[in-house]
Amino acid sequence: NLYVASWCHSTFIDLHYLDSMLENGANINATDRYGQGVLHGVIAHVWHPDVARYFIERQADVTIADNYGVTPLHVAAAVDYPEMVAFLLDIGGKNNILITTGMMQTPLHYAAKYDAIDSLKCLLKHKADMKARDYKQRTPLQLAAELDRSEAARLLVGFQADAGVYDNTGQLCLTLMVANMPPVANVALDQFFIKDRANRKQYFKLNVLVPQPSGQKKTPLSMIYRQLDLIMHPVVQKLIEIKWKHFGMRGVTIHLTLNILFIISWTILGIASTLTGINQQRYKLPEDWWKILVALVAVGLTLYQITDEFIEIHASKRKFSQWKEWRNQEIMKDLNLCHPRWPEEKTYLKKELSALDDMHPNYLRDFWNLFDWLCYLLIFTVIVTHVADLLMENPNLHTSHVRLFAVAIIFIWLRLMKHVRAIRSLGPFIVMLGKISVDILKFLFLYGEFFVPYACAFWIIFGGLVPNMTTVPQMLFTIFRITLVDDYGFDDMYGQDSVMAYFLCGTFLGLSSILCINLLIALLSDTFQRVYDNATANAAMQQASIVMQIEEHLNQKDKNKFCDFIHESCAPLGIFFDDDMTTDQEADLKKVTIQIKAEELCILGLTTEAGCWWLNQLQACTVPQKHLKMQNLQHVVPVLALHQNFPFSPILLPFHQTLLYFSFSDNYLIPALKLFQPQVEECHFTHQQPAMRKKKIYNIFLCFFTLHLAFVTNTPTNGNNFSHVYFAKTPQ
């Protein structure tokens, strides 16, 4: 038939042959087994629109749909063929935009889910409906977010597509964006933050971020609290603040109070266990009634917290199981409707199912949950050894009990950080300790590479021959003391074997104390800087994590009460707007006004008017933070300025007289020449190699020397003589 004939030639079409077939009665609207006609094939192979015009002029149906409801316009949108999209819309009329498939998806849905950017632009230009819904009530933006089509989602968000819509199951579009495309979600969050500068008001649409209570769908905050960039968005910050005030602060106070009481009671028992001698009676009544009371409080609090942990485990498993089952059903719905002509979507959905099978509840992924059970295990062991000690009165058992109690007390006190991290002033430092522990593990591997072979060498030479190496534990601790430059008995080793004493102690001292310790300091400093640079974000993440845990433990009545408050009073939440309050505290680094004293700027040969003009231009100049920084003086060089004592030649001023500082942390030097001539090229710099630093200084020297020559020759202020002045990356 005609459809088959049109596919016989992959590089050209024999129109005469097709005309002869039509004259012999061929059906131009014939379809294949999928119900697709000739126009589907023409568009799928991205042939010229004139080919489609040829068939349409011969009565080919431009709106024909296949067995899955896919029209030629859907195909053109999916294969990102904007010329064909525009042609079909012009031929078939604007109503083609509203044509839906068997999944009730418009061409805009198809362009979004196949990441066809150019087709999206064309459809939006022709006023395609961004609010159209498919069979699951998903908009094109939500479909793009669910299928991880970042570019399509970014474009739709740029066209103000609503990110606060829900599908028929209550799944929020923004939640999918946070999970699959955080950078786009960060832009979409701006839709829920409105500034009314005229009336000094700002509005937060918090009701969008707090959906109605559901045991299946995840909330945006449950996905955001691990995202360092998203957590600092004003809308998210305001939501955390509202939750903290309503139930977070109260919950943290209760948990912190119980935990402090828990710690103090076990600490008192631990100290009391050392006051009783091995051969003395453990409890003397009625004198020791307080010990029994403290023990009952400690054990009671322990049982309460263990019960709470089991409740949390059960709730976590139940909630995850419900979400997993719901998500599996939703994926299967889409999988059963995938078109066989385009297997990419089916492949992606199968990968989603596979990833879903590999998912497990998040309870055991939380370090603090594991740390809790470690503390409970130590406490259980302490209780068992104490009971055994009371029954058996064995001196060795009593000693073991006291030692174990001492270790348990350390971990019990460290557990306090779990609840303290919700306090924003302390949260970053607790995060820092976690990051540092990872660095210490890396360091221990490197340190062990030196420690183990040197331990063997020391034992071979001095094992059992010197006082501090009579046993292996003594020898290992002595070698560790060498790293700390402590007293490690060098004289004894020297008396036994002077050559090996010098060799082993000297080399190990250099490798461990100088190399390894300084490497550890560098690692810890780098970690501290990275965490502290994002201290506010890290504090917000910790607080959000605790707030979510407390919210999970709220009863249904309190959850409904808070949800009603959000949807009644925060839809939107309007508060007073103050530029100074809402602007970033470091925004002054982004726009720096250059202040220069007139007496420090004296250029020979310049008229008073020219000198004042230059001064005014510099004072009015604002420079982006990317190009100009007033900090990090160890990485900067002073700008070459012209000094009155050196006519016709610029000099380097001392740091205390420096007018400006240029940072080498960016690829570009501030285009200083543009201050005088907008047509001047930007001054490019490379900073990868330290050897380039002199070349950078030299380039700055040339820049201001050129300015100096221009001014001393009374160059007009329009700077026409600078049209060809620029500096390249080469040393010249």
TrEMBL record:
PANTHER family in alphabetical order: TRANSIENT RECEPTOR POTENTIAL CHANNEL PYREXIA, TRANSIENT RECEPTOR POTENTIAL ION CHANNEL PROTEIN
InterPro entries xref list: Ankyrin_rpt, Ankyrin_rpt-contain_sf, Ion_trans_dom, TRPV
GO molecular function: calcium channel activity
One cellular-component annotation, GO: plasma membrane
Intervals holding ANK repeats: 68-100, 103-135, 136-168
High-level lineage: Eukaryota, Metazoa, Chordata, Craniata, Vertebrata
UniProt cross-references to Pfam families, sorted A to Z: Ank_2, Ion_trans
Catalytic activity line of the entry: Ca(2+)(in) = Ca(2+)(out)
GO terms under biological process: calcium ion import across plasma membrane
Spans through the membrane: 247-269, 367-388, 400-416, 444-466, 499-524, 697-713
Chief location category: membrane
Name recorded for this polypeptide: Ion transport domain-containing protein
Keywords: ANK repeat, Calcium, Calcium channel, Calcium transport, Cell membrane, Ion channel, Ion transport, Membrane, Repeat, Transmembrane, Transmembrane helix, Transport
